[in-house]
Every structure is written in C-alpha cells, then in structure tokens.
Amino acid sequence: MKIFLSKNKLIKFIQNEKDLGFVPTMGAIHRGHISLFKRSISQSKKTIVSIFINKQQFNRKSDFKKYPRVLKKDISVLKRLKVDYLYIPSNDQIYPRGPNKRINVGVFGKKLCGKFRPGYFEAVVDVIDRFIKIINPKRIYLGEKDMQQLKIIEHFIKKNYNNIKVIGCKTVRARNGIAYSSRNSLLSVAEKKIASKIYNFLDNKKNHLIDKKISFNDVKNKIFKLGAGKIDYIDLLDVNKLIKPYRQNIKYRIFIAYYLRTTRLIDNI
Predict the structure, then answer these.
(1) Cα torsion angle, 190, 187, 178, 194, sign
(2) What pLDDT does residue 35 have?
(3) C-alpha to C-alpha distance for 100 and 30, rounded to whole angstroms
(4) Are 48 and 14 in contact (CB under 8 A)?
(5) Which candidate in 30, 33, 155, 208 is catalytic?
(6) Which residues of 78-102 are buried (b: 16+ CB within 10 A; e: fewer)?
(7) What is the pTM of this model?
(8) Which of 73, 200, 209, 267 is deepest in the core (most CB within 10 A)?
(9) What's the mean pLDDT when you consider all of the chain?
(10) Rounded to the nearest 5 degrees, what angle is found at the Cα of 86, between the Cα atoms of 82 and 91?
C-alpha cells in the first residue's frame, strides 16, 4: 500500500488511473468500513481510501476533539486488506482557502440530522466534492447506515459528475444488532447493551409503525425506558421518496438519532 500525505504527489501518481474505487473515511476503521473496502477491491482495478477528520462536520469543538484517532491501527488494517492507496491530507490541503459557503443540499438536507446539525451536510458535500477533484474516482463507496448522507451525496454527484457512480453498501451490524460506527468505541459495555435493546425493539416494532398499530409517542417512551438520554428524532420514511426522481416501490425505514450520555448514535432500520 502506498501512503500519500501530499496532494500534489497523489495527483501526479494516480493521474493515469481510469478505474479507481474511492472510500472516504474519518478513520477509526471498523467492520462497516472494511465491507466498503472489500466491495471496492472486488469491483475496481485500484482502491484508494482517505482518512481525514473533517473539522467542518462538527458542530461542537468537544466532539471534534474526542473523535477516536487510531491511525497506526487503521494503517495496519488497510495494509492487511491490500488497499492500494491511502491518502491522509492536512486541513490546509483540503481547505486551502476555507470551506465553500455556496453548497446547496436541498430540502432533505434540512430534515432529520440536518435539522439538529446545521451546516453538517453542506460540509460533507463540500469535502466529498474536494476529494473528487483531487482523486477523480470512477466509483465512491458509502454505507447505508448514514442513509441521509448517502442520498444527499448521491444526488449531488448525479447533478455534477455524470461519470462517477455512488455505490451504497448495506449496514454491517454486530451480533447484538448495533450498527458498526467509529463512535461505538466511546460507549461503555452497559451503553452498548442499551443500544442493542433499542435496535431490537425498533426492528420488532417496524411493521407496527407502518400499520399504525403503535404510536411514535409509545415508541419514544419505550426507548427512554430502555436507557436513551435524549432523542433528536425518530421517523418512518420511504427511502425511495426522499429525493427526486422518486422510485415506484415503497421501502420504509425507521430513522433515529439518540444519545447515550454524550454520544450521539444514528441508525435506519
């Protein structure tokens, strides 16, 4: 695996690559990430991974500071998987003149997480756009755990880059049902048990919500009883009707964001 810290060196080295799969990450690599790497490796001639903790995506400095950083471990995992290239840029390389304040993520970007994290999706789209201009990949691999983010990025790329395909990959879960996330490392054993109970409860009650046999208030009250400290939102949405053009078939997901102590967890089930 070849590691790049310099944007110019990377651009020069990969300029003739015509079949690049790209997986953007903020590090703290887990099994969810690994499934994306493997998918890219199986479908692309070469795979490039980025590790960049994007300060612009954090609404609070404390969240940015406590985000898990395990670079040596990450590099070891990527080498073992035989990823071709790793790009670890500095903030100045990605934002030489600061963030783009003209990014428009549309109506859906203001809902769910967008309502509680103003500017978050604009920052995500901005940084992906900057990586695209540097790397020029053929495919970008993203996880369905961040479904709202996936749909927004997919929409932006369809509008602006007709030669790049976004590949959404299924959420990878632990045996207890918790979706793998870098933030899981911030949870105690007891909190992981609570997260597992919340997932299993929602999974069991999904059809009841679809059939309106249970109210959202009842669901919220049960999640609080299971141990959640705060719920930002819980909603039932058709993922094929989130962003135009709409698809015909109905595909419901429960979208949730909640806190266990100070750790914010999101999922869609």
Answers:
(1) positive
(2) 98
(3) 30
(4) yes
(5) 33
(6) beebebbbbbbbeeebbbeeebeee
(7) 0.96
(8) 267
(9) 96
(10) 165
In the chain, ranges of CATH 3.30.1300.10 domains: 182-268
Residue 232, H or E segment: strand 230-238
The pLDDT tens digits for 180-189 are 999 999 999 9
Q: Which amino acid is at 130?
A: R
CA 174 to chain centre: 17
What average pLDDT score do residues 37-48 get? 98
Q: What is the mean pLDDT of residues 211-225?
A: 97
Peptide bond before residue 245 is cis, with ω within 30 degrees of 0: yes
In the residue annotation, 33 being an active-site residue is answered as yes
- Contact (Cβ atoms closer than 8 angstroms) between residue 127 and residue 94: yes
Could you tell me which CATH number the domain at 182-268 has? 3.30.1300.10
- Using alpha carbons, select from 3, 92, 16, 8 the residue that is nearest to residue 48: 3
| Collapsed DSSP state (helix, strand, coil) of residue 152 | helix
Distance separating alpha carbons of residues 227 and 206, to the nearest angstrom: 19
Q: Where in the chain is the domain with CATH 3.40.50.620?
A: 2-169
What is the chain's length? 269
- List pLDDT tens digits, range 119-128: 999 999 999 9
Sorting pLDDT into bands at 50, 70 and 90, what band is 204?
Answer: very high
**Residue 245 pLDDT greater than 90, yes or no:** no
Q: What does the pLDDT average to over 204-208?
A: 97
CATH topology of domain 2-169: Rossmann fold (3.40.50)
